[in-house]
Amino acid sequence: MKNLEIETVKRILKEFVKDTGESLELILIGGLALQLYGRGDRATVDIDAEVEKGDLFKLYEFLKKKGIPADLSENISGWSVVAMPEGYRERAKTVIKDKNLIIKLLDPYDFVIAKLRRGTQEDFEDALFVAKRFNLDPEKISEYGQLAVKNSIKDTALLNFKRKLDIFIEELNKGR
């Protein structure tokens, strides 16, 4: 599988809106988002995104025909028992705007929480990169984590998330 770069994806998404005549607005989540956050060495083979406007299924089929795996949703908060902090969509920033195409990124604090929800070693490293790159306040990260827990259903997964969050904050504070 070939690594994707943001310029290639931008070109393909522009092709999608041109071919369909539909508008597309999405929030990038995974490795492509990291490229836009400034981590150019972060390889990815798929597109992870929340589709805010546009036909998710048409987009999925279009990408599939292009040989590009995609994990698309209308609600990334549903990707985990741990919810996203309330207001994450409103805090997302537009980074690419073209005719009928808007690509956004999560606010860096929301991105860190999104990564810690899944919590693999790679996710932890991605979150650490963003937190350091944007000099995020560990206390504010904790607050966002508490908002995520508050918005979540009661589940033992919350205990694991809280533990990951504590370890993350501890690691982040080491470098200060």
Give an overview in words.
The protein is built from 8 helices and 5 strands; from the N terminus they run H-E-H-E-H-E-H-E-E-H-H-H-H. It has 176 residues and is of the alpha/beta class. It has a 5-stranded mixed sheet with strand order 3-2-1-5-4. Helix 3 links the parallel strand 2 and strand 3 (70-73). Helix 5 (108-118) packs antiparallel against helix 6, helix 5 crosses helix 8 (157-174) and helix 7 runs antiparallel to helix 8. The model has no long low-confidence stretch (mean pLDDT 93).
Q: Strand percentage, roughly?
A: 15-25%
Q: Oligomer, anyone?
A: single chain
Helical amount: 40-55%
Largest sheet: 5 strands, mixed
Work out the count of structural domains: 2
Strand order of the largest sheet: 3-2-1-5-4
Termini separation comes to 38 Å
Low-confidence stretches: none
How many beta strands in the DSSP annotation?
5
Key structural traits:
single chain; 176 residues; alpha/beta; 2 domains; five-stranded mixed sheet; 52% helix; 15% strand; globular
Draw up the topology in text.
Blueprint: H1 6-20, E1 24-28, H2 31-37, E2 47-53, H3 56-65, E3 70-73, H4 88-91, E4 93-98, E5 101-105, H5 108-118, H6 121-133, H7 138-150, H8 157-174
Parallel strand pairs: 1-5, 2-3
Antiparallel strand pairs: 1-2, 4-5
Helix pairs in contact: 5-6, 5-7, 5-8, 7-8
